[in-house]
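2 proteins. here.
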Amino acid sequence: MRSWQIYPCATSCQKDPGLTITTVVHDPPGDDATNPNGERLTIRNSSRATIDLAPYLLVEGGSRLTFPPGALLKAGEAVEIRVGRGADTRLLRYWGKSAGILANGGGAVRLTTYGGVPISCKAWKSGTC
């Protein structure tokens, strides 16, 4: 068993890959129960290299979104993630939920490694990172 699986390191031992959650739309117009794709967020690659998103996951409350192997984000590109359902493309992904999951009163979305190392976090209203 690898040591990082037993003892996850603090943020300082994980090299910053250059991924940042830049935008979260948590309260779009309409009813969250019928418009889950109105809730969305954007992850930007600010590095100079192409990054495979497969080693990372998005976490919001009890919901987790994983990326398939080969989900590449080129330097300077951004991928939009919509909470509802749809057909994934390279720069547009869907969480697959039937209703909104981003609390209107406040929350936070986190991008982490599978080992729990935080990469980026975006909070709104009463939420904290």
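next one coming up
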Amino acid sequence: MAFEHSRKKLFKIFLNNLYKLPSLYLWKYKNKKKLQKHSPKKFLGFEYEITRSGEFYYTILPKFKPLVSVLVRTCNRPNVLRSTLTSLRNQTYKNFEVILVEDGPNVSEKLIKTEFNDLTIKYYPTTTKVGRCIAGNIALEKSTGKLLCFLDDDDYFYPDYLETMVAQFERNPDLYIANSLSFIAEIETISTTPYLYKEKKIEIQNSPIFSLLLLIKDNFYPIQSIMFKRNVYEELGGFNLDLDHYEDWLLWLTYTSKYPMYSIRKVCSIFKVPTEEETKRKRAASFAKHRNMVYSYAKDLKLNIDLFSLSELQKSN
């Protein structure tokens, strides 16, 4: 969260420590071989990891505290779910509920009751497996928040995600849907019990400025990076049940064909994808099939706006 004269104070600290740089680079040069033996194997500027874009993004805690429904889909992997719920526990904005739908038996119920009873979690196991889209639609139907967002069980919010997103809706009363930047992390799973993984690659996933033309081309906006008002869902509905992948892509195409998307230039979440070749191959084959299905359904979407108003579909900050 921003504080008065923060940039000036940080710059003063930087100037006061400039004299340390020569000795730092000399030490790095002398210990080059030792550093290469350890992870990370390279330095990126002053950091050990990729920079989180938007570190100076100006935000203020919202004065009004609308209820946010965080919609979580999970399926028989409580050890993975644990880290996702921990990221919700750490949110600076506290007025939210978690609508957690388990696709299948109530495997995660014990975890929720014993480790996360401090969170407002409404838990709905489906008993039998129903698929991602039905699970998502159940979460949408059971939600009560004025603002809605998704967070699947292997993705994370940074602690200021809800604060940053809600603040934009407070500043812009006419705003209906907004997106923020997200890291996509390619991971190699080491163990599922306990859940351990190694990040092989991490980069910013979506475009800094929302583009409807870019969204038509591909699904550049991860599901957890977008927040929308409840009445958008009530008017335009939830997931298409014919899809098993790219269901969020069609949903965003549907929503943004009617309402402008407001872009926030700040990384607020992490979206994980597997790096194992066999898993990637199977996912690619399934995605190719569902891509054509999305295009088929999207043909029915219409933009009833004039040329000037078209620019309003590409707002950013």
